[in-house]
UniProtKB/TrEMBL annotation:
<dbReference type="GO" id="GO:0008115">
    <property type="term" value="F:sarcosine oxidase activity"/>
</dbReference>
<keyword id="KW-0285">Flavoprotein</keyword>
<feature type="domain" description="FAD dependent oxidoreductase">
    <location>
        <begin position="4"/>
        <end position="355"/>
    </location>
</feature>
<dbReference type="Pfam" id="PF01266">
    <property type="entry name" value="DAO"/>
</dbReference>
<dbReference type="InterPro" id="IPR006076">
    <property type="entry name" value="FAD-dep_OxRdtase"/>
</dbReference>
<keyword id="KW-0274">FAD</keyword>
<keyword id="KW-0560">Oxidoreductase</keyword>
<dbReference type="InterPro" id="IPR036188">
    <property type="entry name" value="FAD/NAD-bd_sf"/>
</dbReference>
<dbReference type="InterPro" id="IPR045170">
    <property type="entry name" value="MTOX"/>
</dbReference>
<dbReference type="GO" id="GO:0050660">
    <property type="term" value="F:flavin adenine dinucleotide binding"/>
</dbReference>
<protein>
    <submittedName>
        <fullName>Methyltryptophan oxidase</fullName>
    </submittedName>
</protein>
<dbReference type="GO" id="GO:0005829">
    <property type="term" value="C:cytosol"/>
</dbReference>
């Protein structure tokens, strides 16, 4: 079967790309090992934080502001509420890169941001406890994305625009010869003129088939929901949060519709083979204890653990994304290595992938996310 574009991996980035490519009139096929949204990749768990004054560096801000605009477009097109504006509170030491990057990003792009000392944070949100030397950066316009709902919305709209989605079909082999792409699953062979590889933790193995060895490391991550005092922690009055503490970086979500506080740890995690199922939440002895020690110290009005889950990050060495064309094939676009902070960008990444496929360039600068930085390192 022949297509204009094949997308391998119909998850966060791939499904959005499928929408933009099919909307542009491209005959698009999306292939996935499972049936997205699903719980075997990086996109499950109900919610993802979206913030604009970016702690990871100001170079992300143009892309995230584009993403914000496109999330609102998706809400309008799908008639679904996907982005809840809870505000996001970043907490850390005043001189840390984490806090300084938030402030620099906000200043440079005139983003609303309230910077406050620890006593002001505790006065505004009685459910937070902080050491005296912490500061808080509250971004009122940021919030929470419904991740699986967003992927479903892109899926439905992509299908309306004529995209074909073949699920439960793992790609086993692929090759590119000029404008002839050949993709094989166990059951079928597909052909196209162009290719998008957006396969999350599976990207490294797939790209090796196209002579590209990218330093992508899948790691096991855990997150969990805890019963919480709803009067304090409900999403109408409590923000999503990211805390850089002396133990590590923790993030969490207010209780949305009584679901409880959801919390996870951003740094660390065991390296895994993405083709082998990972240990469930609780099978590693520290899973619960690590989150509980953070909550007891900083979000103290919580009660029992409800349940926990595991998910994957795919890390690059500098924890920045890869969004680029293949160095050898100008008809192959790659989006990989989202290092545990990519979901909020997926609307803009999907659009960028469609632009790369159609014209080789994007209106938002993608140079911070180029493949070259790893190829140069090897020289
Ligand atoms: C616990 C957790 C919390 C997070 N919190 C946040 C947050 O608050 N904010 C934020 O912005 N980001 C967050 N992230 C990160 C974000 O979710 C990821 O960066 C993003 O989902 C990655 O998207 P992806 O498209 O690369 O991967 P995925 O969404 O996993 O999609 C990849 C798809 O490729 C498919 N695939 C793989 N191999 C093959 C193959 N051989 N053939 C066919 N299909 C294949 C998979 O089945 C999958 O569907 C979090 C991640 C985790 C795990």
């Amino acid at each position: 079967m022949n297509y204009d574009v094949i997308i391998i991996g119909a998850g966060s980035m791939g499904m959005a790309a499928g929408y933009y490519l099919s909307k542009s009139g491209k005959k698009t096929l999306l292939l996935d090992s499972f049936n997205p949204p699903h719980n075997k990749g990086s996109h499950h768990g109900g919610t993802r934080i979206i913030r604009y004054a970016y702690a990871e560096g100001e170079e992300y801000v143009p892309l995230i502001l584009k993403a914000q605009e496109l999330w609102r477009d998706l809400e309008r097109a799908s008639e679904k509420e996907l982005l809840i504006q809870t505000g996001v509170l970043g907490v850390g030491k005043e001189q840390s890169d984490f806090i300084q990057n938030i402030i620099t990003s906000a200043n440079k792009y005139s983003l609303p941001l309230e910077v406050m000392d620890s006593s002001e944070v505790q006065r505004r949100w009685s459910g937070i406890s902080l050491p005296n030397d912490s500061v808080g950066c509250f971004e009122p316009t940021s919030g929470v994305l419904k991740c699986e709902e967003s992927i479903k919305a892109y899926q439905e709209l992509a299908e309306v625009h004529g995209a074909t989605i073949v699920t439960n079909s793992k790609v086993r082999e692929m090759s590119v010869e000029r404008d002839r792409v050949t993709i094989k699953t166990d059951e079928q062979t597909f052909y196209s003129e162009a290719l998008v590889v957006s396969a999350g933790a599976g990207s490294r193995n797939l790209l090796a088939m196209l002579d590209l060895d990218l330093p992508l490391t899948p790691v096991r991550k855990t997150f969990a929901w805890f019963d919480a005092n709803e009067k304090i922690y409900n999403h109408q009055s409590f923000p999503a949060f990211a805390f850089e503490t002396s133990h590590g970086i923790y993030y969490g979500f207010p209780s949305i519709d009584g679901a409880g506080i959801k919390v996870g740890r951003h740094d660390g995690g065991e390296k895994i083979n993405p083709d082998i199922s990972m240990k469930e939440f609780g099978e590693v002895s520290e899973d619960k204890g690590d989150l509980v020690q953070f909550l007891k110290q900083h979000i103290p009005e919580i009660d029992q653990l409800k349940y926990g889950k595991t998910c994957m990050y795919t890390l690059t060495p500098d924890e920045k994304f890869i969004i680029d064309l293949h160095p050898k094939y100008s008809n192959v676009a790659i989006a990989a290595g989202f290092s545990g902070h990519g979901f909020k960008f997926s609307s803009a990444v999907g659009q960028a992938l469609s632009h790369l496929i159609m014209s080789g360039k994007n209106d938002i600068d993608l140079s911070p996310f180029s493949i070259n930085r790893f190829l140069d390192e090897e020289k």
